[in-house]
Amino acid sequence: MLNRRSALVLTSVSLLGGATASAHAQVSYPAKSLRLVVPFPAGGGTDAVARMVSQKLAEALGQPIVIENRAGAGTTIGLAEVARAAPDGYTLGVGGTSDALLPLLYDNLSFNPTSDLVFVASLASSTLVLAVSTNLPAKTIPEFIALAKSRSSSPLGYASVGVSSPHHLAGIHFSAMSGAPLTHVPYKGTAPALTDLVGGHIPAAMLGLPSVLPSARSGKLRILGVASAKRSALAPDIPTIAEAGLPGFEAGFWYHIVVPRGTPRSVIDRLRAEINKIVSSPEVRDTMAKSGFEALTLSPDESERALREDAARWIRVIRDNNLRGA
C-alpha cells in the first residue's frame, strides 16, 4: 500500500512524464510531410500565393508541403476535404472571403465552414477589376455603362470565376448600381476566363487585379476600373470604379489558412507564428505587392470580424437575386 510520500513522488513523476511527452509532441511536430488543399485551379493568383507561402512554410517547418488543387462548387469541394481530414495538423486548407456565404449558397453542405474549420493565419487580399476586351470600344467606366445600356436587348456578357463567386457578386452589384444590363458568364477559374477575354470571346470580366495586370500591361486587354477604395499603387493611372461614376462601389477578396476543428492548439499556434512571420517578411510582402496582392496578418478576432462584414455586404445581393451555388 502506498504511503502519502510515495504517492506524491509517483504523482510528480507521472506529471513530469506527461509534461515531457507533451513537450516532445510539440517539438516533434511536424514529423512528416503536410498537405495544403487549395480549392481553386492551379495557375491562378490564389494558387500562386498559396504556393509561395507554402514553400517558405516548408522551409520553416523542415518538412515538405504537398499542394492539392481541389477546385469546384465554389470552394466547397476543397474545404469539405479539409473539414473531414484528421485534426492532426497535417492537412491545411485555403479559405477566404466566401466562407461565411457558403451556407447561404449551398443546400445540404456536408460541413459548416464556420464551425468545422478553424482560422490559422491570413495570407493576402486583392481588389477586383472590371476589364474589357480590346475589341470593345469602351475605354472608361461611363463609356462601358453607356454601351451596355445601348445593348439592353442583347446584354453584354461578363466573365467571372464561377457562380456566386465574389467576382459574380461584384458584377451583379455593378449592374444594379449602374443600371447597365449585363449577362453573367461563369468560368471554371481565372485562367479560362482570362484566355477568352484576351481572345475577344467575352467582352468583359470581373477578375482579380493580380491575374489581369500582366495582360493589361502588354496591351492584350483594358482595365477600366479597380474596385478598391483607393487607386492601386501598381496601376495608379487606373481610376477606381467609385471615382469613375459609382460612389461607394468596392469589391475584393482575401484568403487565409484553415485547419480541421479539433487540431491541437499548440499546432495552430506554431503554424500561425510561422505563417505570420513569412507574410510579414519584406521579401514576401514585396513579391505579393508586385503581383497585385496586399499581405495580411490578421488576428483570429480580426478575421472573424472581416468575415462578418463580408457576409453583411453580400447577403442582400445573394437573397435579392435568389443566388445558389453551382
The CATH top-level class label of the largest domain: Alpha Beta
> Unreliable segments (pLDDT under 50, ≥5 consecutive)?
1-26
- What is the SS-derived class? alpha/beta
Question: Sheet with the most strands?
Answer: 10 strands, mixed
Separation, N- and C-terminal Cα atoms = 68 Å
Q: Give me the strand/helix succession.
A: HEHEHEHHEHEHEHEHEEHHEH
Query: What's the number of structural domains?
Result: 2
CATH topology of the largest domain: D-Maltodextrin-Binding Protein, domain 2
Q: If helices are DSSP runs of H or I spanning 4 or more residues, what is the number of helices?
A: 12
The percent range for strand residues is 15-25%
Strand tally, please? 10
Rounded average pLDDT: 88
- CATH homologous superfamily title of the largest domain: Bordetella uptake gene, domain 1
Q: Report the C-alpha radius of gyration, rounded.
A: 23 Å
The percent range for helix content is: 40-55%
Q: At CATH's second level, what is the architecture of the largest domain?
A: 3-Layer(aba) Sandwich
Principal-axis shape = globular
Question: Which SSEs are present, and which pair or pack?
Answer:
Layout: H1 4-28, E1 34-38, H2 45-61, E2 65-69, H3 76-83, E3 91-96, H4 102-105, H5 113-116, E4 117-133, H6 141-150, E5 156-160, H7 166-178, E6 182-186, H8 190-198, E7 204-208, H9 209-217, E8 221-226, E9 252-260, H10 265-280, H11 282-290, E10 294-295, H12 300-320
Helix pairs in contact: 2-10
